[in-house]
Amino acid sequence: MATSEEIILAASGLTKEFGGFFAVNGVDLAVKRGSIHALIGPNGAGKTTCFNLLTKFLQPTRGSIHYRGEDITARQPADIARLGMVRSFQISAVFPHLTALENVRIALQRRRGDSFDFWRSEKVLSAFDADAAALLSEVGLSQFAKTRASDLSYGRKRALEIATTLALDPEMLLLDEPMAGMAQADVERISALIKRISANRTILMVEHNLSVVASLSDRITVLARGQVLAEGGYAEVSADPKVIEAYIGAGHG
């Protein structure tokens, strides 16, 4: 059993009701510091709602959320990011007409507390170049530094988005379906990237691709109908009759 010091993010009795419908109902979750923890489940299981609650894009009807021992249940998303818990979105969120380097540079500006001031002199902005180049190298995009984001492949756009997220220097990274819509080559590249960047960070991800979940995750929480159905390692949860029934019943093989 993990001690409270080992748990970086914890939810207790997390519940979200929409007009009598419980999208999330009494979810308890404990994410261990330094781990890759996956949140999975068939369509309609409540994964996205749960994710939105944890990152404070939705306010829970009931329950509590603690990050690094601090109660963040009533905090705003921007407060959470400043505390070191940063979310990467399912839909790629980069500026398409800026280069990869410029995208990361803007994220670095934000971290330093500067506003999104696009009219700063090139001299001021170039102070961020070395750090931006280092982040591009970390996500395998060094050779695309001068490429406009709109000209990058889908998988490389996602890698760029992860670079802009890392620019905020998060201790914990929340990834919302990082493999969605990717070709197999990109899936393999981003899987390797997630493994690499997890070395000194905690990662919580919602992911549909079960082979990715199997290869990356230290621990898995399975949701079904808004409740925790099972939790454990991949071998354990994938052999659980309740999990198999939930996926087959929802039309998943």
User: How much is the radius of gyration in Å?
Assistant: 19 Å
Assembly of the depicted chains? single chain
Give average pLDDT, whole number.
Answer: 89
- If helices are DSSP runs of H or I spanning 4 or more residues, what is the number of helices? 10
Biggest β-sheet: strands ordered side by side in the sheet: 6-7-8-3-9-10
Say how many strands there are. 10
End-to-end distance? 32 Å
Q: Major β-sheet, in short?
A: 6 strands, mixed
- Number of structural domains: 2
Percent of sequence in beta strands: 15-25%
- Note the run of SSEs as H and E: EEEHEEHEHHHHEHEHEEHH
CATH superfamily of the largest domain: P-loop containing nucleotide triphosphate hydrolases
- Write the CATH fold name of the largest domain: Rossmann fold
What is the helical fraction, as a range of percent?
25-40%
Stretches where pLDDT is under 50 for at least 5 consecutive residues are: none
Structural class of the secondary structure composition? Answer: alpha/beta
CATH class term of the largest domain: Alpha Beta
CATH architecture of the largest domain: 3-Layer(aba) Sandwich
